[in-house]
Amino acid sequence: MKARRPFHNAIVAAILPIVLGWTAADAQTAGAGGGLDELFTRLKEADAASARRIERQIFTEWSRSGSPSADLLLQRGREAMSAGKSTVAIEHLTALVDHAPDFAEGWNARATAYFRAGMFGPSMADIGRVLTLNPRHFGALAGLGTMLEQMERPERALEVYRAALAIHPHLEGVEQAVKRLEAKAAGQEL
Questions:
Q1: Within 10 Å of residue 168's Cβ, how many Cβ atoms?
Q2: What pLDDT digit, counting tens, does each position of 139-170 carry?
Q3: Which tens digit of pLDDT belongs to each residue from 6-41?
Q4: Domain count within the chain
Q5: Where does each TPR repeat begin and end (predicted)?
Q6: Pick from 12, 49, 187, 188: most CB atoms within 10 A?
Q7: What number of other Cβ atoms are within 10 A of residue 110's Cβ?
Q8: Which residues constitute the domain of residue 75?
């Protein structure tokens, strides 16, 4: 993995301005339609249990491409991932992003498949595309934070995790990651 570090650094350098270049207020107003805007408003105000339900509603909305063929490719890609077949998932999801390049959830699903295959560079590139199309995609931000943490970039991971929490204050696992990284940073400063 060390040999890939310069490549990863270049990808991180390209993606982070996208992620960090907008504020939480921008995230609240970006993206599609009033229905999602209302869900995001409710998400920020919800308790943890309600937030999980609202999160599922948001993901359901994000997963609607408007094209039956794109929806089928997304379904097949997700099924392949669930079956542990990352290569097959990547093939289906590559067909999806070729067919529907403006469908953010297609890019997000392929980023996940690449991540599961251990291909951080392509995963990060796809996350960059997701966040360009949908800056409120807290799942993509959480994935980016995880990769940055695994690449031993804790300061950057913390920034990205905080950006995710600004959108979704109860994002599972991310609250704990922020506390862990903050504690680690505080311990290093002593």
A1: 25
A2: 999 999 999 999 999 999 999 999 999 999 99
A3: 545 545 544 555 444 443 334 333 444 469 999 999
A4: 1
A5: 138-171
A6: 12
A7: 29
A8: 2-189
